[in-house]
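Ops channel
N.P.: pipeline sanity check, posting one input/output pair.
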């Protein structure tokens, strides 16, 4: 009997994790990021967007009580498992994966500090500057002359996501229900 009860709980928790992570991934894969806002449609560009959506989700749960901290940790674990799986799919050898994972983890946590600081201060220009540094680190920003506008659109979208997630009940999120707004032309530069 205990085995059956624990098995069901584990399956329910897995379903919640999959539902939440699926929404985070879907939010990160919105075509507008890559087509109109010119985020590179490369493994690293997709890592940037997935990291960004994960960070905004984690920011939403930060400091909450109850199941939220556990869910936040499980989703971070899921995120890094997914990143590792992607590296292996790209053909990175077993020897090279740990080295790359360390680098990507440093990248994620470095971005966490910069983005969370901007979110905490409600500072959209600082967020846009951090996005510019991180999305195009080798080009010193977006490659075209209007790139500053694209980073502003992305920053405005992230601010809108933060507001949308803040309005969603913790109980719903802990039950696996979350909704990210679509990226739209309404994400205007401030």
């Amino acid at each position: 009997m205990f085995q059956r009860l624990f098995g069901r709980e584990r399956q329910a928790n897995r379903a919640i994790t999959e539902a939440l992570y699926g929404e985070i991934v879907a939010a990160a894969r919105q075509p507008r990021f890559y087509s109109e806002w010119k985020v590179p449609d490369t493994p690293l560009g997709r890592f940037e967007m997935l990291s960004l959506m994960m960070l905004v989700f984690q920011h939403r749960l930060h400091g909450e009580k109850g199941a939220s901290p556990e869910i936040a940790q499980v989703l971070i674990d899921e995120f890094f498992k997914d990143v590792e799986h992607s590296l292996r799919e790209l053909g990175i050898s077993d020897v090279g994966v740990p080295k790359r994972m360390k680098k990507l983890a440093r990248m994620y946590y470095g971005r966490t500090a910069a983005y969370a600081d901007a979110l905490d201060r409600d500072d959209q220009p600082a967020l846009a500057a951090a996005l510019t540094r991180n999305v195009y680190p080798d080009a010193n920003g977006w490659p075209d002359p209007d790139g500053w506008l694209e980073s502003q659109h992305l920053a405005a979208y992230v601010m809108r996501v933060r507001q949308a997630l803040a309005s969603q009940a913790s109980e719903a999120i802990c039950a696996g229900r979350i909704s990210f707004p679509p990226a739209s032309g309404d994400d205007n530069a401030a």
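N.P.: looks fine end to end. Confidence is low (pLDDT under 50) at residues 1-6.
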